[in-house]
Amino acid sequence: QVQLAESGGGSVHAGGSLTLSCVFSGATFSLMGWYRQAPGKQRELVADVTPGGLTSFGDFVEGRFTISRDYNKNTVNLHLNSLKTEDTAVYLCYGLRLGKEYWGQGTQVTVSS
After folding, report:
1. In Å, what is the CA distance from 43 to each residue of 27, 39, 71?
2. How do residues 58-77 score in pLDDT, each as one tens digit?
């Protein structure tokens, strides 16, 4: 059974950092990454990484976040730095396998001023 298990969300002050982790189990995935969704807004790409290590980021990231992929542990980590209040959202782990999308349940990130 395919599962995506997220961890690492929480509450921080603006300027702080968090690391989110997602463990993929039950299958291997091609594209792996993170999206986010804030109340009343559309879901948007935060970052993703291909099997070859190529990364993509949402325009709003502006160099503040990094994504890393551990192939042995089938895990993707998202490092959030210089967080802003507008980064407050539910962050969802995402995987693509054989053209099908898989989603985690999400982890809340709250940034206060």
Report:
1. 25, 10, 26
2. 999 999 999 999 988 899 99
Q: How far apart are CA 17 and CA 80, in angstroms?
A: 5
For residue 14, give the amino acid letter. A
> What is the residue whose two structure tokens read 């804030």?
38
pLDDT digits (tens, 9 = 90+) for 35-60: 999 999 999 999 999 999 999 999 99
Nearest alpha-carbon partner for 43 in 33, 34, 52, 35: 35
| Residue whose structure tokens are 């407050």 | 88
Q: 3-state DSSP: the chain helix, strand, coil percent, rounded to 5?
A: 5, 55, 40
Burial of 60 (0-12, 13-18, 19+ CB in 10 A): middle
